[in-house]
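task queued by scheduler; priority normal; single chain, no ligands, no partner chains; default sampling; output format set to structure tokens
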Amino acid sequence: MKTATNTPALAVDRHEEKFLLNPGEAALARALLDGALHRDRHSEAGAYYIRSLYFDTPFDNDYADKVLGVSDRRKVRLRIYDHAAPTARLELKEKQGIYSHKTGVTLTRAETEALIAGERDFLLARSDAAARRAGNLLVQEARRPVVLVDYERTAWTMPVERVRITLDEHVRAARSSALFDGAVPMVGVHSGSAVILEVKYDHYLPGHIRRLLSAVQGQNMSISKYAAAREFLY
């Protein structure tokens, strides 16, 4: 099996805040953010597509931890931005309260399809620690793919504190593991109308950005697209 280029693992400890918005609040947030920040290069022409395939244990530990409000929790997912993509990203996201830490490794399409089918050995044989850790979690916890989630994202950034703010819309899900299949029937989560605003930064959120966001009357809450999809579909 051909192996993807061994790119450095992504490892980031960040503050993360989430807000649930209605369409009117999302329109206001978009206008305010466009007036204060630059969109990232992927969003310059509009929202871009994201698809994630989530893995959980046979006892659905990740879902249960989220529902119960456990402070320390994790998610394992495969992510693509195009159904025809030659690679996918295997990501392990861990949270401790408001802090998040994410590592990831790039897989070829063949490796990705093998992983979905239950193959794990190639991860354990990789030289990078992130791949071996993800492989060990998949093996030791008997994780398997459980839900597919699609949405469109618009993102804004600023260099100070590496602020990144995103609006995720049209969140939809399916009980499927067909990561690369664009024809999978998807069902809208939150009736397809809710928008999720995510705010990420290193140590502090600059005051003028905090004041700008305070004008958007969204509900500050712990939101998980994965948990919402599981609750809706199962």
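post-processing summary
- The two ends are 35 Å apart (CA to CA).
- DSSP finds seven helices and eleven strands in the chain.
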